[in-house]
Design a protein that fits this description.
The protein is an alpha+beta fold and about 160 residues long. It has seven helices and three strands. The longest helix has 23 residues.
């Protein structure tokens, strides 16, 4: 028997066909919804740029979003202390933006905290005292399934 050479299978490449490649501008141009979305994003970026230009540099770094609905400007700060500083500048900010944007009220909100990435599989450590307390609590539980679950949990602290 003669060994056969294995052919490497190659996934078809869409980019090999010039008809399959479309410019992103063309895609946005054909869809009204995408065109409106792109325009809204551009307005929001321009507004945020105007806001960050109108506040002190140290504060600008903590203003992470800006929206304008009607005449209400809503700013999003990354923490409560920076939100307070933005609130103090509300009147001044209204005056500075008045040339291009019609702002009557300024509202400042605090962004929810970003969750840190999971810590590489580290498991929480159960102290021996906590394990003993769980084991003692398990002895007073009438439900056998719950009692067994608590006893299993208590064994993790005794390793």
């Amino acid at each position: 028997m003669i060994p056969q050479r294995r052919r490497r299978l190659r996934a078809p490449r869409v980019l090999d066909d010039p008809r399959a490649v479309q410019r992103i501008d063309d895609l946005f141009g054909r869809s009204d919804a995408l065109r409106r979305l792109a325009a809204a994003v551009a307005r929001q970026r321009a507004l945020l740029a105007a806001v960050t230009d109108a506040v002190p540099r140290d504060l600008a770094a903590h203003c992470i979003a800006a929206t304008l609905e009607g005449t209400e400007l809503t700013l999003l700060a990354d923490s409560p202390p920076w939100a307070t500083r933005l609130r103090y500048l509300g009147g001044d900010l209204r005056r500075r933006l008045r040339g291009r944007w019609r702002v009557e009220t300024v509202t400042v909100q605090v962004a929810p905290p970003r969750q840190p990435p999971p810590a590489g599989g580290r498991r929480p450590v159960l102290s021996a005292a906590a394990a003993d307390a769980i084991a003692k609590a398990a002895t007073g539980i009438e439900d056998p399934a719950l009692r067994q679950a608590l006893l299993r949990l208590s064994r993790h602290g005794r390793r």
